[in-house]
Structures are given as structure tokens and as C-alpha cells.
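dumping the sequnces here before i forget
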Amino acid sequence: MGLFDLFRARPKNTAALATERLRIIVLQERAASGRPDYLPMLRRELLEVIRKYVNVDPDAIDIHVTREGEGEVLELSVALPEKPSAPPAAVASDEA
Amino acid sequence: MNDPKPSIDEASDGPAPASNPATEDTPLAEVIVVTSGKGGVGKTTTSASLAMGLAKRGKKVAVIDFDVGLRNLDLIMGCERRVVYDFVNVIQGECTLKQALIKDKRIDTLFVLAASQTRDKDALTKEGVERVLKELGDDGFDIVICDSPAGIEKGAALAMYFADRAVVVVNPEVSSVRDSDRILGLLSSKTRRAEQGGAGVEQHLLLTRYNPERVANGDMMGVNDVKEILGLEVIGVVPESEGVLTASNSGVPVILDEASAAGQAYADAVARLCGETLPMRFTQAQKKGFLSRMFGG
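..and the predicted 3d for all of it:
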């Protein structure tokens, strides 16, 4: 506290940050509300299986359900890391 | 998604929403739920002021506290010492609706139905609520305001279930905005109007605790940000105002404090609810002079 506070840069436009964060989460939650209940579970289990072989980030899996004509299409995309690291260690550390 | 032109005025001269064939022959009161998801954003303050404002415009209005166990609307309306019977008593058949309605001392077309302070929230039932709303319509009420509790549990679900319109109270703050979106989702799925298909519940946003100076500084989301995130029109912006606390201290809905910015903002919101088009006030930061900026104030 004191004189130097006057010169310290104030945190930049946090309102814009809030707007951006909300825009993303609201969109995500709206999309989720129309989807089948099992998707989060499916996502978790798929992640576990994939992680036995490749060390991917928790958010590397993208699941979309889209409507095409009569039926629905489950679309799954996994972003692989650029250089694969040792997977078994990753599995072990996740379970710990 | 919503019809931007509200039409409360129809309610005053007879049957309003024609979407309920079961009770077509009786005039229905228009049901407006005031809800938010998050607590402490100003639902009860808003319910009290909207009810008072609509009653002052000549509507016969009942305002119901759905927050069973945490009754507060009576305090904000200033009728806490006159509560004898409550909403749950009526639903359980322990008294008549007439006995439980508390007539406002200032406007004689305004009535309060208090929440029960003692019962658990399971005391409310969908059938019971429907019966009370129908009886209010039969008694010539134009508008029923349902003051929802926070959360998405039974009380909140029942407060919104029979709504024709919803006023979603939101603070320009991340958790409130997110919760409001959740509530908007429920309004378009878990209400009678949603289940019937058709137009659904007409939804409006009302921003409270708005601080134009902080918006100008980039510390607070602005009206347009909130509007854009939630994809809804804004029916009112109530600035953070000393008037709100002093009004609740004295049991006077803040809309009656015509000198306060909040009171005027609520009066504008009521006018817009009635279909009038007004420019939005209190959303621009006041220009501060050099001296007041130096010394505060």
C-alpha cells in the first residue's frame, strides 16, 4: 500500500474477460443440455482408454452429437499431443 | 425467441392467455415469475417493486412469496406484523385464500401472500399452487407475481411452472449470469407453457446492482455484454443505489422512493412490462469533476 500503488498497472478490463469466459461456458452448457446423459461418462471412459496408449490432455477429447436427417451422429475427435510421452506413467499418476 | 412487445394490458380487460383450455371460461390472472437461480441478486426487491408499480397503474395484483422457510417478502413490503395465515395454510386448506391475502396499506389493489416460515418446502404442491392461481383469477386479479426462492429446487420450480412471463433478475457478475442461463433453460423446458408447446414463457432480463462507473472502467460487464451472452432483451437496468437498502429498512418497496435512481429504474421497468418503450436510464457513468476525482465523492 502507498504511493507506488498509483503507478502500478491496474488489472486490465476484467469485464471483457468475464464476458469472454461466460460466452464460452454458456455456449458449452447450452449444448450439453440437449445431449444424452451418458456423454460425460462416455467421455471419461474414452479418455481413460486412450490414455493407456497416448498421454492426452483431459480436454483433448471433443464429443459432438449432431442431427443429420432422421438420425443422430456421434462425432468424436481426439487431439493427439505433438510428441508422445510415456503413457503408462501417465495412467499410473492419474490413478494415484 | 420471445415476443419483444409485452402485453399486460390485455389482462385488465378480461381473459388473457388463451393457451389454457381447461379454464377458458374464467378470467385468468397473468402469472409473472421473478427468478434468478442465484441468491441475493434482488428477486424479492424486484418482486415488491414490480407488484407495487403494476398496482399503482390500476392493476389488481397479488404477490406470492414462494420461499417456504425463508419468508422475506413480507418484510420488504412492510406487512410482516400482519401475517396471520400463509401460502402453505391456503394450500393445505387450513384457511381461505381471502384470509391469507394481506391487503397493502398504500394501494388497495395490491395483496401479499406470505410464505410459510415453519413448514418444509415439500408443503407446496403443483396442484395446490394451480388451485390458488386459479382462485386469484376468479377473484378478479389481473396479475400474480411469483417471488421465486434461489436455487432450482422445488420452490423455484413451482414458482416458474405456471408462469406466462418471467423476469430473470441478474447481476452483471459471472456466477449470476451463468445461473440465469440455467434458469432460462428451465423456463423453456420445465414450465406448463413449455410442455404445451406453442409460444412458451415470455422471458425478460432485469439487471440489478448495476454500476455504470465500474462498467466504464472495465471492471463490470455492461448491459450489452449480458444481453448478448444470454440472448435476451433487457426490460430494466437498476443501478446500485442507496435507496434500495433504506427502502428495505423501512419496509417500503423502493419503487415508491421516487427520488432514488433505483425507484425510477423500477418504474421504467414496470412501464416496459406494460408495453411502453422507454430509453434506458442510469446506464451511463456520471462525469466526475476534477476535484471530486481527486478527493473522492
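Strands of chain A lie at 61-68, 71-78.
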